[in-house]
Amino acid sequence: MSDFDKEYWDAHYAEASGSSQGGSPHLAAAVRGRTPGTALDAGCGPGSDALWLAAQGWRVTAVDVAAAAVEQAKAQPGADDVTWVVADVASWEPTDAFDVVTSHYVHVPGDFSDLVRRLSDAVLPGGLLLVVGHDTDSDGGHAHGSHLDLDSAVAVLAQDEWEVLAQDRRPRAMTRPDGTAFEIRDVVLLATRR
Question: Which domains does the chain have, with CATH numbers?
Protein backbone atom coordinates (compact mmCIF):
# COMPACT_ATOMS: atom_id res chain seq x y z
CA MET A 1 0.00 0.00 0.00
CA SER A 2 3.01 2.29 0.31
CA ASP A 3 2.66 2.83 -3.44
CA PHE A 4 -0.38 5.01 -2.63
CA ASP A 5 1.37 7.44 -0.30
CA LYS A 6 1.34 11.25 -0.32
CA GLU A 7 4.04 11.45 -2.99
CA TYR A 8 2.12 9.09 -5.28
CA TRP A 9 -1.12 11.11 -5.00
CA ASP A 10 0.60 14.48 -5.39
CA ALA A 11 2.25 13.21 -8.60
CA HIS A 12 -1.02 11.65 -9.78
CA TYR A 13 -3.02 14.86 -9.36
CA ALA A 14 -0.23 17.05 -10.71
CA GLU A 15 -0.69 15.19 -14.01
CA ALA A 16 -4.52 15.18 -13.91
CA SER A 17 -6.78 17.72 -15.59
CA GLY A 18 -8.42 18.92 -12.39
CA SER A 19 -11.94 19.34 -13.75
CA SER A 20 -14.84 18.50 -11.47
CA GLN A 21 -17.13 15.74 -12.72
CA GLY A 22 -20.09 16.30 -10.40
CA GLY A 23 -21.09 14.31 -7.36
CA SER A 24 -21.11 10.56 -6.95
CA PRO A 25 -24.43 8.89 -7.79
CA HIS A 26 -24.15 6.99 -4.48
CA LEU A 27 -23.80 10.28 -2.59
CA ALA A 28 -26.63 11.94 -4.49
CA ALA A 29 -28.94 9.01 -3.66
CA ALA A 30 -27.88 8.98 0.01
CA VAL A 31 -28.61 12.68 0.67
CA ARG A 32 -31.71 12.97 -1.53
CA GLY A 33 -34.50 14.53 0.51
CA ARG A 34 -32.26 15.51 3.43
CA THR A 35 -32.06 19.11 4.59
CA PRO A 36 -28.55 20.40 3.90
CA GLY A 37 -26.37 20.72 6.97
CA THR A 38 -22.71 20.00 7.57
CA ALA A 39 -20.71 17.46 5.57
CA LEU A 40 -17.21 15.99 5.62
CA ASP A 41 -15.65 14.60 2.43
CA ALA A 42 -12.68 12.50 3.60
CA GLY A 43 -10.28 11.81 0.76
CA CYS A 44 -11.84 14.41 -1.51
CA GLY A 45 -9.35 14.23 -4.39
CA PRO A 46 -10.03 17.10 -6.81
CA GLY A 47 -13.26 17.90 -4.97
CA SER A 48 -16.10 16.57 -7.13
CA ASP A 49 -18.26 15.39 -4.22
CA ALA A 50 -17.40 18.33 -1.97
CA LEU A 51 -18.24 20.86 -4.67
CA TRP A 52 -21.46 19.04 -5.53
CA LEU A 53 -22.53 19.02 -1.88
CA ALA A 54 -21.73 22.74 -1.51
CA ALA A 55 -23.80 23.49 -4.62
CA GLN A 56 -26.72 21.72 -2.93
CA GLY A 57 -26.41 24.01 0.11
CA TRP A 58 -24.25 21.84 2.40
CA ARG A 59 -21.49 23.40 4.54
CA VAL A 60 -18.58 21.18 3.54
CA THR A 61 -15.15 20.37 4.92
CA ALA A 62 -13.03 18.45 2.40
CA VAL A 63 -9.78 16.67 3.27
CA ASP A 64 -7.14 15.06 1.08
CA VAL A 65 -3.50 14.01 1.47
CA ALA A 66 -2.54 15.46 -1.93
CA ALA A 67 -1.93 19.20 -1.92
CA ALA A 68 -2.08 19.07 -5.74
CA ALA A 69 -5.63 17.70 -5.61
CA VAL A 70 -6.75 20.34 -3.12
CA GLU A 71 -5.21 23.11 -5.24
CA GLN A 72 -7.11 21.81 -8.29
CA ALA A 73 -10.31 21.71 -6.25
CA LYS A 74 -9.80 25.28 -5.03
CA ALA A 75 -9.64 26.45 -8.66
CA GLN A 76 -13.12 25.10 -9.43
CA PRO A 77 -16.32 27.21 -9.42
CA GLY A 78 -17.91 27.14 -5.97
CA ALA A 79 -14.66 26.25 -4.19
CA ASP A 80 -14.93 29.26 -1.87
CA ASP A 81 -17.97 27.55 -0.30
CA VAL A 82 -15.83 24.63 0.93
CA THR A 83 -13.28 24.45 3.76
CA TRP A 84 -10.26 22.65 2.26
CA VAL A 85 -7.76 20.73 4.42
CA VAL A 86 -4.55 19.01 3.33
CA ALA A 87 -4.14 16.01 5.66
CA ASP A 88 -3.77 12.25 5.48
CA VAL A 89 -7.16 10.68 6.29
CA ALA A 90 -5.29 7.51 7.26
CA SER A 91 -4.32 9.28 10.50
CA TRP A 92 -6.26 12.58 10.53
CA GLU A 93 -8.81 12.95 13.32
CA PRO A 94 -11.88 15.14 12.64
CA THR A 95 -12.35 17.72 15.39
CA ASP A 96 -15.97 18.47 14.50
CA ALA A 97 -19.08 16.35 13.98
CA PHE A 98 -21.12 16.39 10.77
CA ASP A 99 -24.57 15.54 9.44
CA VAL A 100 -22.99 13.59 6.57
CA VAL A 101 -19.56 11.97 6.45
CA THR A 102 -18.55 10.52 3.10
CA SER A 103 -15.42 8.89 1.75
CA HIS A 104 -15.02 7.57 -1.79
CA TYR A 105 -12.23 5.32 -3.12
CA VAL A 106 -9.75 6.12 -0.36
CA HIS A 107 -6.59 4.04 -0.06
CA VAL A 108 -5.23 3.60 3.44
CA PRO A 109 -2.47 1.34 4.73
CA GLY A 110 -3.43 -1.36 7.19
CA ASP A 111 -6.94 -2.06 8.41
CA PHE A 112 -9.59 -0.05 6.54
CA SER A 113 -12.00 -0.51 9.45
CA ASP A 114 -9.86 1.89 11.51
CA LEU A 115 -10.75 4.64 9.01
CA VAL A 116 -14.43 3.65 9.17
CA ARG A 117 -14.30 3.79 12.98
CA ARG A 118 -12.72 7.29 13.00
CA LEU A 119 -15.13 8.61 10.37
CA SER A 120 -18.12 7.15 12.21
CA ASP A 121 -17.05 9.04 15.35
CA ALA A 122 -17.51 12.28 13.37
CA VAL A 123 -21.19 11.62 12.50
CA LEU A 124 -23.88 13.49 14.45
CA PRO A 125 -26.95 11.66 15.78
CA GLY A 126 -29.36 11.22 12.88
CA GLY A 127 -26.48 11.71 10.44
CA LEU A 128 -25.20 9.52 7.62
CA LEU A 129 -21.94 7.67 7.03
CA LEU A 130 -21.25 6.74 3.40
CA VAL A 131 -18.09 4.83 2.47
CA VAL A 132 -17.57 3.71 -1.14
CA GLY A 133 -14.74 1.63 -2.60
CA HIS A 134 -13.91 -0.14 -5.83
CA ASP A 135 -15.24 -3.71 -6.06
CA THR A 136 -12.06 -5.71 -6.58
CA ASP A 137 -14.06 -8.55 -8.18
CA SER A 138 -15.24 -6.17 -10.90
CA ASP A 139 -12.81 -3.29 -10.81
CA GLY A 140 -13.08 -2.09 -14.42
CA GLY A 141 -9.38 -1.39 -14.66
CA HIS A 142 -8.88 -0.13 -11.11
CA ALA A 143 -6.19 -2.71 -10.46
CA HIS A 144 -5.32 -1.00 -7.18
CA GLY A 145 -8.76 -1.97 -5.89
CA SER A 146 -9.96 -1.12 -2.42
CA HIS A 147 -9.36 -2.53 1.01
CA LEU A 148 -12.99 -1.84 2.03
CA ASP A 149 -14.28 -5.12 3.42
CA LEU A 150 -17.98 -4.62 4.15
CA ASP A 151 -18.22 -7.16 6.97
CA SER A 152 -15.22 -5.69 8.81
CA ALA A 153 -16.45 -2.14 8.27
CA VAL A 154 -19.94 -2.91 9.57
CA ALA A 155 -18.46 -4.73 12.57
CA VAL A 156 -16.95 -1.48 13.91
CA LEU A 157 -20.39 0.19 13.98
CA ALA A 158 -22.07 -0.58 17.32
CA GLN A 159 -25.52 -2.04 16.62
CA ASP A 160 -27.15 0.01 19.37
CA GLU A 161 -25.78 3.24 17.85
CA TRP A 162 -26.05 2.55 14.12
CA GLU A 163 -28.58 1.35 11.59
CA VAL A 164 -26.93 -0.06 8.47
CA LEU A 165 -29.01 1.04 5.49
CA ALA A 166 -26.88 -0.64 2.81
CA GLN A 167 -23.83 -2.87 2.59
CA ASP A 168 -23.70 -4.05 -0.98
CA ARG A 169 -22.17 -3.84 -4.41
CA ARG A 170 -23.75 -1.36 -6.80
CA PRO A 171 -23.25 -0.67 -10.50
CA ARG A 172 -21.83 2.65 -11.68
CA ALA A 173 -21.83 3.85 -15.28
CA MET A 174 -18.47 5.01 -16.64
CA THR A 175 -17.20 6.40 -19.93
CA ARG A 176 -13.82 5.55 -21.45
CA PRO A 177 -11.67 8.32 -22.98
CA ASP A 178 -12.84 7.16 -26.43
CA GLY A 179 -16.46 7.81 -25.43
CA THR A 180 -17.64 4.21 -25.04
CA ALA A 181 -19.75 3.45 -21.99
CA PHE A 182 -19.12 0.62 -19.57
CA GLU A 183 -20.21 -0.35 -16.07
CA ILE A 184 -18.26 -1.20 -12.95
CA ARG A 185 -19.36 -2.08 -9.44
CA ASP A 186 -18.64 -0.22 -6.25
CA VAL A 187 -18.68 -1.51 -2.69
CA VAL A 188 -21.07 0.70 -0.69
CA LEU A 189 -21.60 1.07 3.05
CA LEU A 190 -24.37 3.46 4.11
CA ALA A 191 -25.39 3.79 7.76
CA THR A 192 -27.19 6.26 9.97
CA ARG A 193 -26.35 7.06 13.58
CA ARG A 194 -29.38 6.48 15.79
Answer: 2-15+51-180 (3.40.50)
